[in-house]
Design goal:
The protein has about 500 residues and is an alpha+beta fold. The chain contains 13 helices and twelve strands. The chain starts with 10 loop residues before the first strand and ends in an 18-residue tail after the last helix.
Length: about 500
């Protein structure tokens, strides 16, 4: 990319999160990622450069080792003309969601990250005439805590995602509780995975987005009519899965297309497309928590039918979901066991603030940092070294719990040889695909107290909600205000 010849008209708004904003080139398979700040922020350009360089280093030196070379794209830091950045900011402002406009794109430093556009296929150069479908899934945490430090019994039965749904609906974040449970997706059992993916499609929230040729066509919006959306979505998907146009329109067609999408996504998530991963590290001991969440609607239905919860089939050890789960399980203590260790590190830093750099709290995220993450001391020996290792492992685990998986799909031509590209079959077509992982910024050390407080709020609210529901179910039926109560007397 020639930083000296930049035209804001060649770039379009792609999306944004809480901390960064992304624009995509209209022709080339590349995006720019800018940091965002509150209007009154005061950060030097050097500080912003180091922040972005830390993201690149952590992704390249740590997450590529955990996930595999072909799944992770670290990108590079680039310096852009300030006039280009300011004009770009003005151009995209009207496309930004109002809820995200409390922070502004950084227009003062000129620094950004240049990355491949993961909504395009990464296995070969983009061909303009070939349509590309991309599904972005944020699967969240795939296990129930197995730590003996957990004091809330509910956390040994119900996963964090399902509990958090109740608090998010109560606070107005979402309108209704999703049927999606991460443990179903991570189970490796195809029936449970199908249910999980269909649930994401029904209630996408911010856990699923679908792009067609780089444009968002589904998800990422609140309060949408899912039935109407499915019909519209099926119209977009039909050429990918039924290229001969053998299906008529209508509900039957919609269901068939959605079913094909779910089955293809399941096959891709269970595939072993990347052979570069050594797979020699072991994240956690053999001990694990329950393999099913009591709040999962799928598991509840099985229990009502008297079948018991299905044991998971197990994820293949070379698939991407397995790798993500292994990194998540670096969190061996749960936030309840981790927080006292954070306090130990924090107390040391208050006494010796000059040691923060040597402890690598803020980097550098190099080979030495990665090697320390592989240490699994059996017991707490009361040392700073033990506490620091667990704190850093927790930060990496939380990063993996919040990552996104990008699945890009494109139809194979009838006479095309797959070559080096992985292929997934559907009922009526063949699709080439690529898998990538993104949102791999290391979670901040300073966020640990917030995570501890939030954990207590989530469990407390969920426990109250379940108790209230149980109390309502146990109470005798009451007459509604407008119902008549008639007393019938019979002769004895």
């Amino acid at each position: 990319m020639d930083e000296g010849k930049m035209d804001e008209n060649e770039w379009g708004y792609h999306g944004e999160g809480n901390k960064s904003l992304v624009v995509a080139h209209v022709q080339r398979c590349v995006v720019l990622r800018f940091l965002k700040f509150h209007p009154n922020r005061n950060k030097a350009s050097e500080e912003i450069f180091q922040h972005l360089q830390n993201i690149v280093d952590f992704t390249k030196n740590v997450m590529k080792e955990f996930f595999g070379e072909n799944y992770v794209h670290s990108g590079e830091v680039v310096q852009l003309p300030l006039d280009f950045v300011k004009q770009l900011c003005l151009k995209i402002q009207t496309e930004r969601p109002e809820s995200r406009c409390d922070k502004d794109l950084d227009t003062l430093s000129g620094y950004a990250m240049c990355l491949p556009n993961l909504t395009r296929l990464q296995t070969y150069h983009f061909v303009e005439h070939r349509p590309i479908l991309c599904v972005e899934i944020k699967p969240k945490c795939g296990f129930i805590p197995f730590s003996s430090d957990v004091t809330y019994e509910m956390k040994h039965k119900v996963c964090r995602y399902c509990m958090h749904q109740h608090l998010k609906v109560a606070t107005g974040k979402w309108k209704q509780i999703s049927k999606y449970c991460p443990l179903d997706l991570y189970s490796g059992n195809k029936q449970r995975m199908h249910f999980a993916l269909k649930s994401l499609l029904q209630e996408a929230q911010n856990n699923l987005k679908i792009f067609k040729n780089g444009e968002l066509i589904y998800g990422g919006k609140e309060a949408r009519d899912s039935v109407a959306d499915w019909s519209e979505l099926a119209h977009h998907l039909k050429p990918f899965f039924f290229p001969s146009n053998g299906l008529a329109s209508g509900p039957h067609c919609t269901r068939a297309v959605i079913r094909e999408l779910v089955h293809v996504l399941t096959r891709v998530l269970l595939s072993s497309a990347d052979q570069s991963w050594p797979g020699t590290w072991k994240a956690v001991p053999a001990a694990q928590g329950p393999r099913a969440c009591e709040a999962s609607p799928f598991c509840k239905q099985l229990l009502r039918q008297g079948k018991g919860t299905q044991e998971h089939s197990g994820l293949p050890k070379d698939c991407l979901l397995y790798r993500a789960l292994q990194v998540q399980m670096l969190d061996t203590l749960d936030i309840e066991g981790l927080y006292p260790l954070y306090r130990r590190v924090e107390q040391y830093l208050q006494e010796f603030p000059e040691q923060r750099k040597s402890l690598q709290i803020d980097g550098p995220y190099n080979e030495a940092f990665y090697q320390k993450l592989l240490d699994h001391p059996a017991e707490d020996d009361g040392t700073l070294a033990y506490a620091l290792t667990k704190v850093q492992q927790y930060r990496v685990a939380m990063t993996a719990k919040d990552c996104s998986i990008m699945i890009a799909l494109s139809p194979c031509l009838q006479d095309e040889s797959p070559g080096q590209r992985p292929i997934v079959p559907s009922s009526k077509s063949r699709l080439t695909f690529s898998l990538s992982v993104l949102d791999l910024d290391l979670k901040p050390y300073e966020s640990i107290p917030h995570q501890y407080t939030l954990d207590g709020k989530i469990v407390s609210y969920y426990s109250k909600a379940v108790h209230a529901k149980d109390a309502t179910a146990a109470a005798p039926p009451r007459l509604k205000g407008n119902e008549d109560c008639t007393l019938l007397l019979h002769k004895v």
